[in-house]
């Protein structure tokens, strides 16, 4: 992947990481995940960096995981004795979510447009989330025949079990206003409103970097220990992608038709 597909721009103590695959609405592929992981490692060693802004180019934040490289595997059972390449791919995304949460800097997600699936998971890792009015955040995986495997623990941790069940098990989507009301989004600011954006950054920069890093570590310690589900999630995702449900669901989505299990309910009149 060309380095231009993940743009990294440093302005003083603030670094902006821009997902730059607008043709796919910034869907996450293996190379992009690897570059983000590398950026996390570097940021973790940079005491002069105070804020990381994660955003997307071209009117979208992130449409989720890119399945283009694995299209031929959808709905195909794993051959006996074969090591499933889907495991490593999905596990790497889980590693990225853990790495983003562990950043000592303030992590700000600046969302414009779609933040779906894996993109929703990225948002759940942020310390502060700014969205535009046209933003839509959702977890459509189950409606496509897939489990929201790697993001599930982070959605649960961010929203609580009740909201996470509603979101993940129904494949719901939320407007920026709805996401703000539920606490997922903290501010709704238009991209053109640079004054408001700069005010947000200035407010965040009031926090001392060492105190921020220490406080984030304490907050992680306060949480009940979350089981490391990366391997189990990768296995669940790989099995899901190879299932008949995924083949039917993704095909229906591509043709803009309802999936075969999305039957019309005929209740009593």
Description of the structure:
The structure is a single chain. This protein has 269 residues and is of the alpha/beta class. It has helices at 30-44, 85-101, 118-124, 152-159, 161-170, 176-181, 194-204, 209-222, 230-241, 244-254; strands at residues 6-11, 14-19, 51-56, 106-111, 114-116, 128-131, 136-138, 173-175, 187-188. It has a six-stranded mixed beta sheet. Strands 5-7-8 form a three-stranded mixed beta sheet. It is globular. The mean pLDDT is 94.
Largest sheet: 6 strands, mixed
Distance between the termini: 56 Å
Biggest sheet: strand arrangement: 1-2-3-4-6-9
Structural class: alpha/beta
Low-confidence stretches: none
Elements, N to C (H/E): EEHEHEEHEEHHEHEHHHH
Rg: 19 Å
Give the rounded overall mean pLDDT.
94
What count of helical segments does DSSP give?
10
Number of strands: 9
The proportion of strand residues reads: 5-15%
Fraction of residues in H or I helices? 40-55%
**Mass-distribution shape:** globular
Outline the secondary-structure elements.
Layout lengths: L5 E6 L2 E6 L10 H15 L6 E6 L28 H17 L4 E6 L2 E3 L1 H7 L3 E4 L4 E3 L13 H8 L1 H10 L2 E3 H6 L5 E2 L5 H11 L4 H14 L7 H12 L2 H11 L15
Parallel strand pairs: 2-3, 3-4, 4-6, 5-7, 6-9
Antiparallel strand pairs: 1-2, 7-8
Helix pairs in contact: 1-2, 2-9, 4-5
Search tags:
41% helix; 3-stranded mixed sheet; 269 residues; 6-stranded mixed sheet; alpha/beta; 14% strand
């Amino acid at each position: 992947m060309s380095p231009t597909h993940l743009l990294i721009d440093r302005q003083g103590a603030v670094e902006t990481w821009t997902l730059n695959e607008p043709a796919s609405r910034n869907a996450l592929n293996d190379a992009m995940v690897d570059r983000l992981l590398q950026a996390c490692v570097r940021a973790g060693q940079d005491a002069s960096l105070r804020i990381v802004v994660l955003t997307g180019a071209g009117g979208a934040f992130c449409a989720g995981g890119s399945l283009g490289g694995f299209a031929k595997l959808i709905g195909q059972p794993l051959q006996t004795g074969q090591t499933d390449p889907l495991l490593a791919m999905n596990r790497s995304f889980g590693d990225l979510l853990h790495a983003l949460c562990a950043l000592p800097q303030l992590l700000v997600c600046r969302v414009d447009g779609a933040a779906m699936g894996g993109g929703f998971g990225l948002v759940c890792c942020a310390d502060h989330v700014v969205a535009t009015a046209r933003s839509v955040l959702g977890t459509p995986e189950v409606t496509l025949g897939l489990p929201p495997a790697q993001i599930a623990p982070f959605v649960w941790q961010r929203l609580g079990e009740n909201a996470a069940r509603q979101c993940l098990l129904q494949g719901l989507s939320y407007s920026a206003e709805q996401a703000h009301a539920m606490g997922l989004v903290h501010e709704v600011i238009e991209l053109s409103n640079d004054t408001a954006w700069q005010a947000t950054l200035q407010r965040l920069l009031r926090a001392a970097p060492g105190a921020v890093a220490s406080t984030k570590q304490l907050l992680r310690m306060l949480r009940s220990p979350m089981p490391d589900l990366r391997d189990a999630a990768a296995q669940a995702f790989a099995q899901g992608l190879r299932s008949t449900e995924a083949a039917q669901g993704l095909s229906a989505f591509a043709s803009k038709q309802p999936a075969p299990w999305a039957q019309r309910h005929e209740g009593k009149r």
